[in-house]
Amino acid sequence: MHTELVANDYEPAGCLPRVVVVLGPTAVGKSSLSLDLASALDGEIVNADSMQLYRGMDIGTAKLAVEQRRGITHHLLDIWDIGHTATVAEYQQLARRKIEEIAARGRTPILVGGSGLYINAAIDDMQFPGVDPVIRSRWEERLEMIGPAALHDELAQRDPAAATRIERLNGRRIVRALEVIELTNAPYPADLGVPAGLYPSVIVGLTRDRAELDERVEARVDEMLSNGLVDEVTTLVASGLEQAPTASRALGYAQFAAYLRGDLDFSSARERTIVATRRYVRKQLSWFLRDERITWYPAPESLTAADAIVHQISNSD
User: Fold this and answer.
1) CATH topology of domain 133-184
2) CA–CA distance, 146 with 231 (Å, rounded to integer)
3) Domain ranges of the chain
4) Tens place of pLDDT for every residue, the chain, 317 residues?
5) Strand blocks (E) in 57-114
6) Could you tell me the sign of the dihedral formed by the alpha carbons of 269, 275, 276, 278, in that order?
């Protein structure tokens, strides 16, 4: 059994490429800006949205259709079946390979997304604990037996600091923390500040007024529903979405799966999706605002921030 943090199987090359990062909360306008920057910088885009990695999860993740990508190459979209258990360590290796392959072709890697931990894992000096299916299975059985609140109490006894960082009803994270504590015989090393950078990076954050973001979230959910989100969830449920360890928790998918089961009416599923997405936006902002490396730009509909960002990048050469 491993008793310490494990190194990544994939090590970056000796000459580290510069990475352009476009980040920000859900519905702020990252996709449009990333396309503008890719055109201006001869770039290719690497996805850093954890749920866009899954095949079939298109409408509810606002994944750009191929015809919307302006001919720009996108990486790490649609790479996993919905039953795949996502880990940040696996994503880290995939993203770093893509970043270096893009740079080796003489092009600019542009990392785009709203999953803060995935972004940090890709560009910063982070290592992740190993996994042990036997230990995890034991804690998952314990979770099913006593429920997340009681298991959170057990976590608090073992690692009070970890318990304060993990929501009381987030069973998946509680199980992971207990697995790592047992595996490493050490406190759970999560959410402990901004790590040191690995790749030279220009990190761009997009921002909007909070009230405007709230309005955009509601409009985005309604647009997804108009575009066929319920049909998409129906198809995924038939393929095992509700048994999927990671994909089943995706915003919109969880709520409308409950609607299809008859646990929620349509209006309640819609409202819960909006509320949960707004809550997630706050969490994203809280994560990003820790990082003083980020240069923040307003996100007007015209996205004229692209010119300023290209100028910033040119001056950093």
Assistant:
1) Histone, subunit A (1.10.20)
2) 35
3) 19-128+192-315, 133-184
4) 333 333 344 555 556 778 999 999 999 999 989 999 999 999 999 999 999 999 999 999 999 999 999 999 999 999 999 999 888 889 999 999 999 999 999 999 999 999 999 999 999 988 777 778 889 889 999 999 999 999 999 999 999 988 998 889 889 889 989 998 988 888 887 655 567 788 999 999 999 999 999 999 999 999 999 999 999 999 999 999 999 989 999 999 999 999 999 999 999 999 999 999 999 999 999 999 989 999 998 886 545 667 777 777 777 66
5) 74-75, 108-113
6) positive
pTM over 0.90: no
Task: For 19-128+192-315, give the CATH class.
Answer: alpha beta
Helix (H, G, I), strand (E, B) or coil at 22: strand
**291 token code pair:** 């990082």
Phi-psi region of 104 (alpha: psi -120 to 50; beta: other; left: phi over 0): alpha
Which amino acid, 309? I
Q: Which residue spans within 53-174 are E strands per DSSP? A: 74-75, 108-113
